[in-house]
Amino acid sequence: MDRLWAPWRIGYIKQNKQNKKCIFCQSIKNPKKGYVIFKTKYSLAILNIFPYNNGHVILSPIRHINKPSQLKKVEFIDLFKSLNKLTRLIDKVLKPDGYNIGINISKVAGAGIAGHLHIHIVPRWLGDTNFMPVIYETKVISQSLDELYRQLKNAKSKDD
After folding, report:
1. What pLDDT tens digit does each residue of the chain (160 aa) get?
2. Which CATH number fits domain 19-159: 3.10.50.40, 3.30.428.10, 3.60.10.10, 3.40.190.10?
3. Contacts of 23 (CB under 8 A, 6+ apart)
4. What is the CA angle 55-60-62, rounded to 5?
5. Longest Cα separation, the chain
6. Domain boundaries, the chain
7. Who contacts 72 (Cβ-Cβ below 8 Å, separation ≥6)?
8. What CA–CA distance (Å, rounded) separates 148 from 81?
9. What is the three-class DSSP state of 140?
């Protein structure tokens, strides 16, 4: 197995062993630490701190539920309005060619945080896959979380 030096992951490993609290609920309480891009009355948008691709954002309802069928009508509408707002924001800042948008419901379906419903929004660019994942099974993320967070927050404040 190839190894990729990733010293920033130690915080995640220690946190997961010590703290099994919901990252979405924690982000509501501590927005700066949780990389909260925006929050509405019913929804929360945060950067994924272990992204599949640059700009990977997670959108969740504020209420701690685990299935779309548990959403109230107002929460459902707000969540999808927030999804539109989020993709417009990412379009403005990163100018992707497309998106992978998905929901994994339950651990067996791949949900890393199965207890709190969330939507993954992953920007994609033509040619964003290269030889690294194919040959070396390694994904290169081209921008720091702090830089991206700052750009998304600044772009958001100009639109509000």
Report:
1. 555 566 666 665 565 544 567 888 888 877 777 799 999 999 999 998 888 888 999 999 999 999 999 999 999 999 999 999 999 999 999 999 999 999 988 888 777 788 889 999 999 988 766 544 444 455 556 677 888 888 888 886 555 5
2. 3.30.428.10
3. 34, 46, 113, 116
4. 135
5. 47
6. 19-159
7. none
8. 22
9. coil
Residue that has been written with the tokens 């497309």 in this structure: 98
Residues 115/64, Cβ–Cβ less than 8 Å: yes
Cβ–Cβ < 8 Å for 46, 36: yes
Residue with tokens 């109230």: 72
How many other CB atoms are there within 10 angstroms of residue 84's CB atom? 9
Task: Report yes or no on whether pTM surpasses 0.85.
Answer: no
Helix (H) or strand (E) holding 122: strand 119-124
Rounded CA separation 32/46 (Å): 10
Q: What is the bridge-based pairing of β-strands 119-124 and 43-47?
A: unpaired
Task: Answer for the pair 67, 126: CB distance below 8 angstroms, yes or no.
Answer: no
| Catalytic (active-site) positions | 118
144 forms bridges with which residues in the sheet?
none
